[in-house]
Design goal:
The complex is a heterodimer. By secondary structure, chain A is of the alpha/beta class. Chain A contains 22 helices and 22 strands. The C terminus of chain B is likely disordered. The chains are: A alpha/beta, B mainly alpha. At the A-B interface, loops of A face helix 7 and helix 8 of B.
C-alpha cells in the first residue's frame, strides 16, 4: 500500500446528526489509471462515498471521522472554495440518471461549453471545437448538430455519452461513476461501460465505479470492494472476489445472481434484511452475522477487522477460509419435473397494434407498435419476453390484460377472443403483476385489503372469517408472515411489497399471470427471493406465466421458453437454453453477447 | 430542523383551528352570546367608544355605531352571516369543483378538454366582478351570495384537483382496480377519491377564508345580504362615514375579517402538512 494513490479514503465515517452511523471505517484506495468497483445493495451506503467526495451529502448527514485524501491533499480539511475548484476539473462525475442530470431547457452545446469555460477554455470557438472533439471521442455521431439539440431530443444512452464526455473533458485524475448504467437498456449498458473503460485508458484516469451489479463490476473493474451495512467486508482483485470470494457475503451475492452460462442451480436466499443505521450502530459483532450461514457465537460478539488474507486481498471475516463451504441449501422437494398441459392458455395469431396519432393539422398517422406476432403459451408454461425498451413488450402485456385494444390479428386468452368477449370474462383468468410495487399498491389500504382486492368486484362478498383465512393463505403462498396483514405498504421493504403484489395477483386463481419487469428494481438478494418464489409457486399453484424482463439470466432462471422481441416483432422464439446458447437472429446474438460479458463463472 | 418545522406547523394548525372554531361557535350561538339584539338602537349612545378608550362603558364593550347599535353584538351576528356563507359556499364550490375535477382527471380525452376549457374561460373573468354581476342578476340575499360564490369559485377546486387526480390516475393501483373489474365510479370513489381527499380538505379550508372576504366585499357594496341582516362588510360600510372621529367602528370588523381569514389560512396550511402523505410517510413501523 506504499504505492502512490490518487484517492485514499481513510477510516471514513458518515453519521446522521443523531449519531447513527451510515458508513463505518471505510478504507479505499485507487492507484492511478485503475478502476475500483464499490459493490453494495441498496442501503449499504455506497452512494454516500461518492457524495462525501463531492461534498454533496444529503442534509442531516455529516462526515464524523476519517479523511479523504486526493492526490496528497486532504479533501475533508479544505475550504469549500478550493474544494469546489477541484471538483469538475480534477475530479469528474458521471451521474446515475443522465435524463435528469442535464437542464432540459438549455441546449447540449450551451451546457458543455459552460462546463468547458469553467475548466479554463477561454474563447467560444475553442470551446465548441473541443466539445466536438470530445463528442467524437465518445462515439457520438454528428457532434456538430448535437450541440444545438436539447436533452429531450437524445436517447438515454446518448445523454450518458455526453455526460461521460463532460466528465473526462478536463483530463481529470479521478472520475466517480455512481451507477452510470442502471437507467439504461442492456445493450446500451455494455457500450457505456466499454466507453468508460476506453476513455479512462485514453486519459489515464482512475475511476471509482459504484454499482449494485456484480456482472458489470466483474467486467469493468480492476479491483473491487464489497460494502455491507456501511462497512467494507472484502477488497481485492475483481476476478478473485467475484469468482473466489473470501467473505460469506460476497459468496452469497454471487450465489444469488442468476447466470447465463453453466449449470442451472437454485439461487441463494439470504434470510432477513440488511440492518439499518439504527440497528448497525448498536451492533457489537459482525453486521452480517444475523444473516450469515456460517456465523458462530464469536461473530455476534466481536467484529472481525478487515485483514489481509492474501497479497492484495482483504476480508473482514473471522473465518475467511470457510467461505467456500457456503452453499445453496437443498430444496426439500427436488421434484422439478412436472408436466405441461397441452391446452394453450394464450394464442396470438398475426397480432398487431397500431397507435393513431393526430398532428396539429388533424392528419392521422399510424404508428405500428406491434407487427404480426404469432405465439402460444401452454398451460403451466413459463414464457419470458426479452427485448430492450421500445420493442413493444409493454404494449403486448397491456393488450393481453385488456388495457389496450387489439387492432389487427387474433388474440385468444383462456379460450376466449380478447377483442369480442366481454371484459368481465377475463377478470379471473388473467392477472398482471406490476413492475413498481410502490405505485401498484394503494398506500392508503392495509395489506389484507390489498391482497383480497380482486374479490371486491364480485357480486357476493366473503364473510369476514373467510376473508381472513384467504389473506393468511395468500400471504403464506408468498412466504410472508400473517401479521403483515394489518400493515400499510409503506411499512414493508421493497421485496415484501413485491410479494404482496404477487399475492394480490394470485387471489382470483388466474390461469395466466403476466409479470412486467417485476425484479428489475430490486437488489440481487431480493431478486433471488422473488425468482425462487416464482419457481416454488409454479409447483403448487399451476398457472402460466408471461415474464417480461430485460435480464436474460432472469428469464433463463425461471422460464421454459422465451420470445425475443425487437422493434415490435418477435425475431426468435424457442426453449430458453436453446435460444440463449445458440442464438440465430443477429439481434438475439447481440443481446446474449451483451449479457454474457466477462460474467460470473457457473455455480459451485 | 425537521422537528422545529413540525412543531411550527402544529402550532399554526392549533391556533388557526381554535380561532376558526371560536368564530364558528359565535356564529351558531349568536342569540345566546350577544348581549343585545344587533338591530336594537340606543340613540343616547351613538358612536360610543370601546371600553378601553376614554369615555367607554362596560355596557358596550366595543362601543356603538352611528345608529347606536352595539358593535359587539353586530360583530357576533356578523360572524353568523360570515360563517353561513363560508361553510355553505365552500362546500358547494367543493362539491361542484371536485365532481368535475374527478371527471376531467380520470377520463381525460374530450371530457377533460371540455371541462378544462370551460374552467379557463370561467377564470378569465375577474372573480369579484363576476360575483357582482351574478348578484345583480340574482338579487340580494344570503342564499344568492352563496350561489354566486359557488358559481365563481368552483373553478379553483376544479383546476387544482384535476391535476392531482391525473397524478393518482397514473398510478398502477388504479390500473389494477380496473383489471379486477371494478366499475369507473367505484374506482373513482375507492381508489382515487381517498388520495385526493387531503388536498380537498386543505382547499376547503382555504376557500372558507376566501368566502369570508367575498361576502364582506359584497355586503360592503350593499350587494350581499339585506340591510337588516348584520354583516361585517356592512359594518365597515356604515362606519366609513364617521371613520375620522370614531375609528374603532371601522377597525373592529376589519380586524375580525383579518383574523378569521388568517386562521382559515393557518388551518389550511397546517392541514396540508399533516395530511400530505409525502410529508408524513413515517407512520411508525
Amino acid at each position: 500500500m506504499t504505492e502512490r494513490q490518487v484517492l485514499r479514503i481513510r477510516h471514513l465515517e458518515i453519521a446522521l446528526r443523531t449519531g447513527q452511523r451510515i458508513l463505518n471505517g471505510v478504507e479505499l484506495g485507487i492507484q492511478p489509471g485503475r478502476i475500483l468497483g464499490v459493490i453494495g445493495e441498496s442501503g449499504a451506503g455506497k452512494s454516500m462515498i461518492g457524495s462525501a467526495i463531492a461534498d454533496t451529502l444529503p442534509r442531516g448527514l455529516g462526515i464524523s471521522g476519517g479523511a479523504i485524501e486526493f492526490d496528497g491533499l486532504t479533501l475533508t480539511d479544505m475550504t469549500a472554495r478550493t474544494r469546489r475548484s477541484l471538483l469538475g476539473r480534477d475530479i469528474g462525475f458521471i451521474p446515475q440518471e443522465p435524463m435528469s442530470a442535464l437542464n432540459p431547457s438549455l441546449t447540449i452545446g450551451h451546457q458543455i461549453c459552460h462546463h468547458l469555460a469553467r475548466i479554463g477554455l477561454r474563447t467560444a470557438k475553442v470551446r465548441r471545437d473541443r466539445a466536438v472533439e470530445l463528442f467524437a471521442e465518445v462515439g457520438l455521431d454528428r457532434p456538430q448538430a448535437l450541440l444545438d439539440n436539447y436533452p429531450h431530443q437524445l436517447s438515454g444512452g446518448m445523454l450518458q455519452r455526453v455526460l461521460i464526455a463532460m466528465a473526462f473533458a478536463s483530463n481529470p485524475r479521478l472520475v466517480i461513476a455512481d451507477e452510470p448504467t442502471t437507467a439504461l437498456d442492456v445493450t446500451i449498458q455494455k457500450k457505456v461501460v466499454e466507453l468508460i473503460a476506453r476513455t479512462r485508458e485514453a486519459h489515464d484516469t482512475s475511476v471509482l465505479f459504484i454499482t449494485h451489479d456484480l456482472q458489470l463490476a466483474a467486467e469493468i473493474c480492476d479491483d473491487v470492494s464489497v460494502l455491507y451495512a456501511g462497512r467494507i467486508v472484502e477488497t481485492g482483485a475483481a476476478r478473485r472476489i467475484i469468482n473466489a470470494p473470501r467473505h460469506p457475503y460476497s459468496r452469497c451475492l454471487n450465489l444469488a445472481t442468476p447466470n447465463l452460462k453453466g449449470r442451472m442451480a437454485r439461487l441463494m436466499i439470504l434470510p432477513g434484511t440488511m440492518p439499518g443505521p439504527v440497528e448497525r450502530t448498536g451492533m457489537k459483532g459482525c453486521e452480517f452475522a444475523t444473516r450469515c450461514p456460517i456465523a458462530e457465537g464469536l461473530c455476534r460478539t466481536a467484529r472481525p477487522p478487515l485483514a489481509e488474507i492474501a497479497p492484495g486481498h482483504w476480508s473482514a471475516c473471522h473465518w475467511p477460509e470457510r467461505t467456500g463451504t457456503v452453499a445453496v441449501p437443498k430444496a426439500a422437494d427436488a421434484a422439478e419435473g412436472f408436466v405441461l398441459g397441452s391446452a394453450p392458455v394464450l394464442r396470438a395469431k398475426g397480432l398487431g397494434k397500431a397507435y393513431r396519432q393526430h398532428d396539429w393539422l388533424g392528419r392521422v398517422r399510424e404508428v405500428q407498435a406491434l407487427r404480426n406476432l404469432d405465439f402460444e403459451i401452454r398451460e403451466g408454461e413459463f414464457v419470458g419476453i426479452v427485448g430492450e425498451s421500445g420493442s413493444g413488450k409493454s404494449s403486448l402485456t397491456k393488450m393481453i390484460v385488456g388495457l389496450e385494444d387489439v387492432t389487427s390479428g387474433v388474440l385468444e386468452v383462456a379460450g376466449l377472443d380478447r377483442a369480442t368477449a366481454p371484459r368481465a370474462a377475463f377478470f379471473d383468468k388473467v392477472q398482471l403483476v406490476f413492475q413498481d410495487p410502490q405505485s401498484a399498491l394503494n398506500p392508503r389500504r392495509r395489506i389484507a385489503s390489498l391482497v383480497t382486492q380482486a374479490l371486491e368486484g364480485r357480486a357476493h362478498a366473503l364473510s369476514k372469517a373467510d376473508q381472513k383465512a384467504l389473506v393468511t393463505e395468500l400471504l403464506g403462498k408468498v412466504m410472508l408472515p400473517p401479521d403483515v396483514a394489518g400493515r400499510f405498504p409503506d411499512q414493508l421493504s421493497g421485496g415484501q411489497k413485491q410479494r404482496v403484489n404477487i399475492a394480490r395477483a394470485l387471489c382470483s386463481n388466474p390461469r395466466l399471470l403476466i409479470a412486467d419487469e417485476i425484479v428489475s428494481g430490486l437488489d440481487v438478494s431480493v431478486q433471488a427471493q422473488i425468482l425462487e418464489l416464482l419457481r416454488a409457486l409454479r409447483r403448487e399453484a399451476g398457472f402460466s406465466l408471461l415474464l417480461v424482463s430485460h435480464d436474460l439470466a432472469v428469464v433463463r432462471h425461471v422460464c421454459d421458453r422465451t420470445l425475443v422481441m425487437c422493434k415490435g416483432e418477435i425475431v426468435e422464439q424457442g426453449p430458453v437454453e436453446e435460444v440463449f446458447s445458440n442464438p440465430l437472429h443477429p439481434y438475439t446474438r447481440e443481446l446474449v453477447a451483451a449479457a454474457q460479458g466477462a460474467g460470473i463463472d457457473g455455480g459451485p | 430542523m425537521m422537528g422545529r418545522n413540525y412543531r411550527f406547523a402544529d402550532l399554526g394548525l392549533f391556533i388557526g383551528g381554535s380561532f376558526a372554531a371560536l368564530v364558528l361557535i359565535c356564529g351558531i350561538f349568536a342569540p345566546w352570546i350577544a348581549p343585545y339584539h344587533p338591530n336594537d338602537q340606543e340613540l343616547l349612545y351613538i358612536l360610543a367608544p370601546p371600553v378601553w378608550a376614554e369615555g367607554g362603558t362596560a355596557e358596550h364593550l366595543f362601543g356603538t355605531d352611528s345608529l347606536g347599535r352595539d358593535t359587539l353584538s353586530r360583530l357576533i351576528y356578523g360572524a353568523r352571516t360570515a360563517m353561513t356563507v363560508a361553510v355553505a359556499a365552500s362546500f358547494g364550490a367543493m362539491l361542484l369543483g371536485a365532481f368535475f375535477a374527478h371527471l376531467a382527471g380520470y377520463f381525460g380525452g374530450w371530457v377533460d378538454w371540455i371541462i378544462s376549457r370551460t374552467v379557463e374561460v370561467w377564470l378569465s373573468f375577474p372573480p369579484v366582478v363576476l360575483s357582482m354581476l351574478l348578484i345583480t342578476g340574482l338579487g340580494i340575499g344570503i342564499d344568492k351570495v352563496i350561489l354566486a360564490i359557488v358559481l365563481v369559485d368552483w373553478t379553483r377546486f376544479c383546476r387544482v384537483l384535476r391535476s392531482e387526480v391525473q397524478v393518482v390516475r397514473g398510478q398502477d393501483y388504479v390500473a389494477f382496480a380496473r383489471l379486477i373489474g371494478l366499475s369507473h365510479p367505484r374506482v373513482i370513489m375507492k381508489e382515487i377519491f381517498p388520495a385526493t381527499l387531503p388536498m380537498l380538505i386543505t382547499l376547503l379550508s382555504l376557500q372558507m377564508g376566501i368566502s369570508v372576504v367575498v361576502e364582506a366585499i359584497l355586503s360592503f357594496v350593499a350587494m350581499g345580504v339585506p340591510s337588516d341582516v348584520p354583516a361585517w362588510g356592512q359594518m365597515i360600510a356604515d362606519a366609513r362615514i364617521d371613520m375620522y372621529y370614531a375609528p374603532w367602528g371601522l377597525a373592529v370588523p376589519i380586524f375580525a375579517i383579518f383574523l378569521t381569514v388568517l386562521s382559515f389560512n393557518l388551518l389550511g396550511d397546517g392541514l396540508r402538512r399533516r395530511l400530505d402523505p409525502r410529508q408524513s410517510a413515517e407512520r411508525g413501523a
